[in-house]
Write the structure tokens for this entry.
Amino acid sequence: MSPVPSRVVGLFPTPVLHAERLLDPDLVAALVTRFADAASLANHQSERLSHTGTVSPDQDLQLSQVSALVGTRIAEFGELLFGERLPWLVKEMWFNVLEPGGHQALHNHANSFVSGVLYLTPSHPDSNTTFVRPLGQDAFVFRNTHAGSQTGPFNADKWVMPATGAGDLVLFPSGLLHEVPQNRGARRITLAFNAIPQRLDAWGYRIGFSG
């Protein structure tokens, strides 16, 4: 008798979207020229990381163009999270400049549902965005981690983004913990943003968001 087939289901998976070359090279170059040297706010965790202040896209023509380009992808991603195609608002954007030797500490994004990163320069392979499993989410606390064990999607503590290029977009749920390890390459420039849906409806209990 042949064995009964079995299958493994990825239960409650967390989506991360990667869209390659969403921004064309001319727009990427224009953003770098305008904003790379405007990142004057020091990061509290790394002296080799700096940021611009947050800007609403509707306050800047070029950033409004960027917001329109990412809008369709955000709506697609939001449909995965909420089961409905909703109108979304990119409520804030900011630029990050990571110099060689710097890092971005582990964090998540408050007061939003979808967050994203637009890469304006290539990243060194050792300095790609890294997503981290939330603490306390396992049903057990013992680990089986040693030279002979294998790491997969069901037991990994971290997941490192594959290589990203200039113009690439990555979207993820805002509460997902992420970090950038020490930058072992050249200056790394990204444009980050947060987005919220126009409203959510839980069986007639509706909550709206506005900007």
About this structure: The longest strand covers residues 88-98. The chain has one domain: 17-135+154-208.
